[in-house]
Write a structure and sequence with these properties.
By secondary structure, the chain is mainly alpha-helical. The chain is 75% helix and 6% strand. It has a two-stranded antiparallel ribbon. Helix 1 packs across helix 6 and helix 8 (163-188) packs antiparallel against helix 9 (217-229). The longest helix is centred in the middle third of the chain and has 35 residues, at 91-125. It is globular, with a radius of gyration of 22 Å. The two termini are 23 Å apart.
């Protein structure tokens, strides 16, 4: 397996996708810094450097989906996986080595963004405003979700041989997770009372009425569970620093990693490689 990791790492470094991913992370960090600095100059907004670090979490699932589908998709189209099996590598080792490379690359892209934001954002906007321990805890939870994302999209890329289909399925799933998270958040954050306008004797009277879509406590609990189980839901909560079950989020992420990695290995072991 060490040989597989070395070969995969060598291929990764030479791959244009890796350079594009690195440039994207750096470019996104610079763009966020520039836009927030402009707001600071024009409107005097208070800028929190740590928020810039956390914001990337909301879209990194889509980034991982695109990178994984394109990077691992070429292993089938170029016959790399068949060659690995022919020379005697075990399927489980092939799967795990690919997962480790995707995981490390995904984490690296986030670390690059944090480094750029720290080096430029702190001198511009000032020091971190929250306790370092709290920031590190949030980033640790985000890294755990990144591992879960990597396990999900590695399974898709290793089970589907067609690179185009892999990309479509992965990207649609990533966007689907984001949309599901937004729906759950909107349900949980729905106001209990909403303004209602009525006309009485030609005058418009606005009063607060009970929101018919306001969820019950049991419904809120259900939406919260769905949000915590969803990697995108975890990321939205962590980026917004509003995760009521933050201590439990790494457990959910670890569970997703175990389930999808185990399922991926089993499916890849049984797969008929054409």
């Amino acid at each position: 397996m060490i040989k597989l990791l070395r070969a995969g790492g060598s291929r990764l470094i030479k791959n244009k996708l890796f350079l594009i991913l690195t440039a994207f992370s750096m470019g996104l960090a610079l763009l966020m810094i520039y836009t927030r600095y402009r707001d600071l100059r024009n409107y005097g907004d208070l800028i929190e450097t740590e928020q810039l670090m956390l914001n990337y979490a909301t879209i990194i699932g889509i980034v991982i989906a695109i990178f994984t589908s394109l990077f691992l998709g070429t292993e089938y189209s170029d016959g790399v996986i068949r060659n690995k099996i022919i020379v005697g590598h075990k399927r489980m080792h092939i799967y795990l080595s690919n997962f480790i490379i995707i995981m490390m690359t995904s984490l690296f892209s986030y670390v690059i963004l944090i480094a750029v934001v720290s080096c430029i954002g702190i001198p511009l906007f000032g020091a971190i405003t929250i306790p370092i321990s709290k920031l590190l805890t949030s980033l640790g939870c985000i890294f755990a979700v990144v591992v879960a994302y990597a396990s999900i999209f590695t399974l898709i890329a290793m089970v589907i041989q067609n690179k185009a289909i892999t990309a479509i399925v992965s990207i649609m799933l990533a966007f689907g997770l984001v949309m599901a998270a937004m729906v759950c958040l909107s349900r949980i954050q729905a106001p209990e009372y909403i303004p209602s306008a009525t006309i009485v004797n030609g005058e418009t009277i606005i009063k607060e009425v009970k929101n018919p879509k306001y969820p019950s406590e049991s419904e809120k609990e259900m939406y919260q569970i769905l949000l915590d189980l969803n990697p995108a839901g975890q990321m939205f909560q962590l980026a917004g620093r509003a995760a009521p079950n933050q201590k439990a989020l790494p457990i959910y992420s670890f569970g997703l990693f175990i389930v999808f990695t185990a399922a991926g290995i089993v499916l890849f072991q049984k797969k008929d490689l054409k």
